[in-house]
Amino acid sequence: MSDLSPRIRAALQSIPSYKPGRPPAAREGVTSYKISSNENPYPPLPSVLQVVEDAATHLNRYPDMFATGLVNAIAAHLGVPAEHVATGTGSVGVLGQIVQATCGEGDEVVYAWRSFEAYPIVVGICGARAVQVPLTPDARHDLDAMAAAITDRTRLVLVCTPNNPTGPAVHADELEAFLDKVPSDVLVVIDEAYCEFVRDPKTADPLTAYRNRPNVAVLRTFSKAYGLAGLRVGYAVAHPDVADALRKTAVPFGVSGLAQEAAIASLKAERELLERVDALVAERDRVLAALRDQGWDVPDSQANFVWLALGDRTDEFAAACEEAGISVRPFSGDGARCTVAETEANDRLIEVCGRFRQGPTS
Prior knowledge:
3-stranded antiparallel beta sheet, 12 strands
């Protein structure tokens, strides 16, 4: 028998593994809270649960491969042609389809850093080269620097707004000035997984940019505001040539029948769901105000989380949160992202932050 192992692509050795948020360790007498993943703390609406229950009776059948009902519902909801909508397994799944459709070995993808943790993973898997452009000191996209980083090898630019994990959103004037500098043969994907949480009136409207520019696509998800993270359904809005390419690179039958029906039902119940979003936004603003009162320099978050730039103390802070029964998402050496969750969880976070800021620095 040969001692040789199966040959795996060498490029994978340099690709980081995705690190999901984890729940805190159970502690006797302490109610624990997971605020390490950007999940919606509210359970699905009864009307959505009923639809899922009904759809479960058809689990022996393949789902509609093209998610026709969902695509039509999204198109009607947004006022775009159905052929401009492509679905996938969460926005990260659609992102993978986009990179596969645009990039080959040695091509370049420009994006801000730090930004969504999956970006370097999906770029590296396709053999493309990530061009990471540092954020500004106030944790925002440096769009001028991103435009300057575009070369003749650039095939794709990713703009995450609001930015995960830091929170600020790109403003309309900034985006327009940036798009004017991007060559028309470079696809710009505006990743707005948290768009429903935005309240800043200066924020860009990516759908307007898409309507005006054939090289702009918009990426959205049902995981955050709609509370369907466990069903994995996201979508892109793009012009027909791009949308068709995304359908070609999609995993066949990737979006389950349950996910399709739940997403359609969620769109129908949007008014009720957005009332929950309003409550989370109010909690977000309360947490931001409390942290700033404690002396923290917290970026303006337009998402469902807050960012603490802790530098070398990031892991120490995460351990303090764990001890208190909450888990945050640490990015060692940079900072911690803390999801806005139940009021009790947010109160616990505020308490830990207050103690940590007053404590010893070593």
